[in-house]
Fold these 2 entries.
Entry 1:
Amino acid sequence: MKIETLRMLVIGLGIACAVALAAVIYGIVGLAMRPAPPALSEGAPATVLLHQPAGTRIVSVATAEAGRLAVALSGGGAPDRIVLVDAASGAIVQTIELGAPP
């Protein structure tokens, strides 16, 4: 009876290992097949002027929807803010100021 229990345990663990390996392979293939993010077009501006006060620091830059960049800014005597920049034209689309409610 003990040998039969051990046999079932070994078979069960073997199946669990096979399922786990299949899940890892599926994840790796899924990441490899994901399309690359779109690159900036050749017509994209090389320089973008944000027109911010002196002392302003760029905290972070992230991609946003519709080919925009979200630039988080801090300092310069102004409240923390996020500037949305159109990556194709370099134009400032929107400025969002972060502050305490009135």
Entry 2:
Amino acid sequence: MLGKGKTGSSAIGPCSRYVEATARGERETAPMCRNITTLRGLEPPATAEEIEAAARQYVRKVSGVQTTSAATEAAFAVAVERVTAATTELLAALPPRRQPPRTEPPLRRLAARPAG
């Protein structure tokens, strides 16, 4: 059910377009996902790429920056780096979850989707 939100939007919603653009290296130009997926308790554990994607999404959401410009690029990159580091540290410090999260991160959903 990739990209399907509360509004009942199509299967190719903003989140799936973001993930596909991320896979192509077009991180700044993709639409924003509404939610950041829980990374704690995943099996296998969240990858550095998944943590960075969540950090990038968080920074995009709170800053309102969809596409970086010369004026925003440096601050945006520093924020993503810091949020990635803080998230990595947080996930390592928390105790294991009793149950895995209900949803998989967007990068895993994209990888599981049949090619086509």
